[in-house]
Amino acid sequence: MVRLFTDELNVGYSDRLIVKDLSVHIPDKKITAIIGSNGCGKSTLLKAMTRIISHQTGSIILDGENITKENTKVLAKKMAILPQSPESTSGLTVGELVSFGRFPYQSSFGRLTKKDYEVIDWALEVTRTKEFKFRPVDALSGGQRQRVWIAMALAQETDIIFLDEPTTYLDMAHQLEVLELLQKLNREQERTIVMVLHDLNQAARFADYIVALKEGEIVKAGNCEDVINHHVLRTVFQIDTEIGRDPRTNKPMCVTYNLLKGDS
C-alpha cells in the first residue's frame, strides 16, 4: 500500500534545479532510507515532501490529495518532520518542547487539554525521556536531546515521520539507540519512517526500502539487496566496494571501499 508518492517532482532554489523529475513511492508502515552524496538533493526532497519548501513542478500526493492544497493543521496531523539542525531550545524544558507537538490539535486559545498532557507523557515514556520532563533541553546529551525531538514528533500523533540525518553528531552507541527506537516505533506502532542516512550499513540494517539519489535523480530504489551492491554504490558515490553479509541480520553490508579515480 502507498499513501505518499511524488510524480515528476522538480525542486530547486532560484534558477538551480536540485531535484529533477523525481517520482518515488514511499511504502506505508515501512522504514525508508534515502542515501546519496552531499548535495544530491536528499534534504531538499524531504523538505519538499513535508511542504517546508515549495516545488516548481510535479506533484506530491498524500492520501489521494495534493499536499499543496491541504490545510496546514490537517497536514500536520498526518506527517511530522525532525530537521537536520533543530532550532534552538534555549530556556525550554523537555516537557515544554514536546508539548509543541500538540500544536495541530490546539484550539484558538492555545491551551493544552487533558488529552494533550496524556499524549505528551506517553511520548516521553516511549522515548524513555520522562525522567527529563522538567529538565532544560540544553542540559541533555546529544543522544538524549535527539530522543526528546523524536518525542515531540510522536506527540503530533502522525502516521508518517520524516527525519533528516537523525544520527548526525552522535557517537556509535547513541546512533544505535536512536535507530533502534525508530525501528521499534515502526514495528510496534506501524509508523511510516522516512529518513536521510549517510551510513550505508545503517541504512541496510534498519531500512526496508532504500532510495539512492545522484544529482537529484533516482539511481535505484528498492530493498537492501537491490541498492546496497557494487554497481549502485559505484554509480552513486564513485567508490569501489566490497560487499559482504552482516552476520547478525544477513543483510548486505559494505565491508570496505576505495575511491574511484578519474572516470573509471
UniProtKB/TrEMBL annotation:
Residues 4-240 form the ABC transporter domain. InterPro entries: AAA+_ATPase (IPR003593), ABC_transporter-like_ATP-bd (IPR003439), ABC_transporter-like_CS (IPR017871), P-loop_NTPase (IPR027417), Siderophore_ABC-ATPase (IPR051535). It is found in: Cell membrane. It is a peripheral membrane protein. Pfam families: ABC_tran. CDD domains: ABC_Iron-Siderophores_B12_Hemin (cd03214). PROSITE patterns: ABC_TRANSPORTER_1, ABC_TRANSPORTER_2. SUPFAM superfamilies: P-loop containing nucleoside triphosphate hydrolases. GO terms for cellular component: plasma membrane. Keywords: ATP-binding, Cell membrane, Ion transport, Iron, Iron transport, Membrane, Nucleotide-binding, Transport. GO terms for molecular function: ATP binding; ATP hydrolysis activity. One of its GO terms (biological process) is iron ion transport. This is ABC transporter ATP-binding protein.
